[in-house]
Amino acid sequence: MKVVIIIPTYNEKGNIERIVPITEDVFKRINNYEMEILVTDDNSPDGTAEKVIELSKKYKNIELSSGMRHGLGAAYVRGMTYAIEKMGADIVFEMDADLQHDPEKIPNFLAKIDEGNDMVIGTRYSEGGSIPAAWPIHRKIFSIFGNLLIRTIMMRFWLHDWTGGFRALKKEVFLKEKDELTEFKGYTFQVSFLHKAVRDGFKIAEVPFHFGERNIGDSKIAPMSYIANVLKYVITARIKELVFGKFGKFMVVGGFGFVINAVVLRALVEGFNFAPVPANLIGAACAIFSNFNFNNLWTFGERKANTVISYFSKLIQFYATSAFGVIFIQTGTIFLGDTFIGRQYYFIYFLVGTGVLLTWNFTMYSVVIWRKSRR
Ligand code: GDD
Ligand code: MN
Predict the structure, then answer these.
(1) C-alpha dist (Å) from residue 17 to 20, 51, 65, 165, 247
(2) Is residue 374 part of a domain?
(3) How far is the centre of ligand 2, averaged over its atoms, from the C-alpha of 352 (Å)?
(4) pLDDT mean across residues, the chain
(5) 49 and 167 assigned to the same domain
(6) 346-364 and 246-266 are packed helices; what angle lies between their axes, rounded to 10 degrees?
């Protein structure tokens, strides 16, 4: 199996001559993989490429890919394509040139790949990881809270570092996501790549590491536009996921249920002289039955009941959840507002109660009734 460590560079002459020998030393301790280095340089004016060519005379496992400068993400897309197509890589690494990512950690990443993971993320924000102690306090706060904010928006708390650039991945992950990695060409590439990999169910593990200080040269990141792009990505990605994902289907199913409830109510009251209360109970029961079946077949189709027993067990849980939600959550909110605030805002209590009810229902459906089966 071949592993290619991709090091993107822009004006890193001083760093590349330091990091290559260190990385080559680490390679000596790795026996079960064929290890190579690919430097993806964007015609750095400081002569980084010439330095790489010089190093490749001493070390036979180094290649250089030169191109136009279109940002870090574009350099990685080009590098990964080159590593897989031209060098025959099975696994590729992302690693900064400036030694902020310690090459000594490479074997830890490979150990996680050996355990069967598809992608391994270096993390600065979990047990065993860190950011430089010498950073000024505002930079630390920014880094920690920025990352926490992204994790919260992404709602996948088990992944601790979404923006870092110290990673290993099987070529299958890149080949699957490649076509979608064109939107953000800069540093935002990292968060978007990880998001697509999680979305598609790749197995992801973490390796904590200490993020070092840069001693030579300057950072290439433009903080303000970077922050704006990351936020833009995570927010739009999550909205799309919610609208077109399970939550969107759940809302469509619920909307259809509402129509059924309303039609049955009116038909019974106006056509069959029912009193409104029993008419609505029948209408609601019909709506819940419709909601159950569409959610079972469509929203949670891949986790649907496949035996008669599980069908009825889910159906009963569904009625219980719905009844609890309407009586205690939705009506309860109206009751509390009416009692403690005042009747004049009753419709607002209804709207708030309905919002909480939807959240309750969706949560119960996804984590209890149609919970993912543990394999
Ligand atoms: N080829 C190429 N083209 N390389 C680039 C470009 C580019 O446009 N921009 C940056 N690089 C290279 C740098 O030369 C360096 O080797 C590496 O990418 C990281 O760049 P830095 O400029 O050192 O980034 P940083 O330390 O400020 O940013 C850190 O935090 C980011 C956000 O969490 C890094 O760890 C990034 O990997 C991380 O995404
Ligand atoms: Mn850096």
Answers:
(1) 6, 7, 17, 20, 51
(2) no
(3) 46
(4) 95
(5) yes
(6) 120
Predicted pLDDT of residue 175: 98
- Distance (angstroms) between ligand 2 centre and the Cα of 32 equals 30
213 and 332 in a common domain: no
Ion ligand 2 nearby residues (CB, 5 A): 98, 100, 214
DSSP 141-169: HHHHHHHHHHHHHHT-TT---SS---EEE
Of ligand 1's listed atoms, the one at least distance from the Cα of 226 is 32
The residue type of 13 is K
130 and 213 assigned to the same domain: yes
| Cα 105 from Cα 115, distance rounded (Å) | 16
Rounding to the nearest 10 degrees, give the CA dihedral for residues 127, 129, 132, 135.
Answer: -50
Q: What angle do CA 268, 276, 271 make, to 5 degrees?
A: 25
Average the pLDDT over each of 64-73, 111-120, 276-285 and give the range with the smallest value. 276-285
CB 304 within 8 A of CB 365: no
Domain count for the chain: 2
Please give the pLDDT value at position 349. Answer: 94
Tokens representing residue 286 in the block: 């019909």
CA distance 65 to 300: 45
- Taking only the tens place, the pLDDT of each residue in 245-283 is 999 999 999 999 999 999 999 999 999 999 998 999 999
Q: What is the reported pTM?
A: 0.83
